[in-house]
Amino acid sequence: MSKENSTHQIVVGFDFSDLGYKAIDHALSLAPLYGDLVLHVLGVLDSGKGLGPFGEDGKVDFHVAEKAQEEIGEVVKDRLGYHPGENIHHFVHCRIGRPAKELIGLADETGADLIVVGTHGRKGVTRLVMGSVAEKVVRHGTCPVLVVRDINHPDNEELPEALRPEPPCPQCVKARVDSDGKTWWCEVHSQKRLHPHPVSGGGAPPSGLANNWSRFNR
Fold it and tell me: What's the whole-model pTM score?
């Protein structure tokens, strides 16, 4: 939905991982939907796991936080280069504390419409992992939360058996690719499953769209 002539605030948790970059890109990709996009990119130095910038005397070394903030700023400038012409304003934050609390706090301070977090990180800047930080943000955040993860993540084996998806039927995938989405199921599964009904535009999907399904064969 377009919100032209309005300001949309998005808070992004960034941790220098590949998915951290994707989290920023996901947020920036929303820019065409809004009149103004204000992006708040936050890195958190975790004070609860010995990863914060503390000297031998136990005092905070703010130079470490300032350096991290500068590095994050360079990342944001680089990613903005992929979105020329968009009306995007950005702020870079680096805080010392508990990651979930800082993300939720910044979202409240800015009146954020959305929080975006990834699922991995690196030592020094906290890992935003489902099951800990991201889960807490999802549960306790006061606005919608988008959790970004790799589409080809390899950890389905870690899922409980009841939640583990069955591998796609190769013949069904072939039917979709060969028909460009007009045929969804193979002959066997077509007897047991309903075909999807196009509710917008009608007809087959755009040419070549079904080729994306071939990734299931990788």
Answer: 0.70
Q: Which residues form the domain of 209? A: 167-217
Q: Does one domain contain both 177 and 143?
A: no
**Residue 132: which of 49, 9, 22 has the closest Cα?**
49
Count of residues in the chain: 218
**Burial degree of 107 (CB within 10 A; 0-12, 13-18, 19+):** buried
CATH number at residue 44: 3.40.50.620
Dist. CA 40–CA 52, nearest whole Å: 21
155 part of a folded domain: no
How many angstroms from the chain centroid is the CA of residue 4? 23
Q: How far is residue 35's CA from residue 113's CA, in Å, rounded to a whole number?
A: 14
Q: Please name the residue ranges forming H helices in 111-209.
A: 133-140, 170-179
DSSP-derived letter for residue 92 is E
**pLDDT tens across 8-43, in order?**
999 999 988 888 899 999 999 988 887 789 999 999
